[in-house]
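debug: dumping io for the single-chain case to check the tokenizer round-trip. Nothing else runs in this session.
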Amino acid sequence: MVETSSSFDSTSGAAPFVSVIIPVLNGERYIATCLDSVIQQSYSNLEILVANNLSTDHTLDIVNSYGDPRIRVLPDPKHQLRLHDNWTRAMIEANGEFVKIVCHDDLLLDGCISAQVDLLQRYEEAVLTCSRRRIIDDRGKLLIRARGLGHLVRHDDVALLNGRTIAHECTRAGSNLLGEPASVLIRRTALPEVPFDYRWTFALDIEFYMRCIGQKDAVVDGRVLSCFRVSPRQLSASLASRQAEEMKVFFTEMALRYPGDISRTDLQIGKMKSKLLVQARRLLYLHLRFRDAMTARRQPHPDQS
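debug: decoded output
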């Protein structure tokens, strides 16, 4: 559990209203665990918007089985939407002062929302806050205890950083140091008119964060407040190549957005690190596939049982 020194009572009317968006497509395996992690937060003044993208499994049955009045299932779209559009329609429906996206297979740790609301209350100039996260596999097993933020902040410390510093550090690291959406809480007034840019797939979240931040500030929190789940089916060799290429293009654009803050050397170092990170992730996914294959081999054949 995350201990916080919150200056407000999250059960009182003074607590800011928070919108938690859960986009989902065929998420019956994980949606209950995700919802539980949000519902069981110590921070209660929130709404949970489920943006179901025409799932064909039992996702909706599971969501509808909850009796929590804070859960609101958005109307089904007329056709299956691109991820960008599904996330956007949920953001349009959000009523909270602060907004968080939690993908249906990820989790919030106890105290996450309370801790992040407290930071945005204390640092009024910050447009968003982000934290480290645990990496878990498709079975919920811990793979990495604390991941993210790089050199932006020390372990368990908090730092207020401007957009130029964050852009420089992310570019030089060749990575989205701010993390996946579950790691981030955003001030709704900072949301761009068009939240998600269709040009990006792998850089979708960090590009969105950087347009929220612009030349302003963000609070980076060294604590671990969420879990990101990896699956053996997430990254193939062809996707790894596309990801590396897209990140290279993205950081080149970052250098144009922040002239004078990102050098040619930063770009070169970042591009090299980005390739290495993509290959490291691919090796992790291959390891998970090998694990599944070995598990399947150990299972008795139906004829042998």
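debug: round-trip ok. The chain has two domains: 15-105, 107-296.
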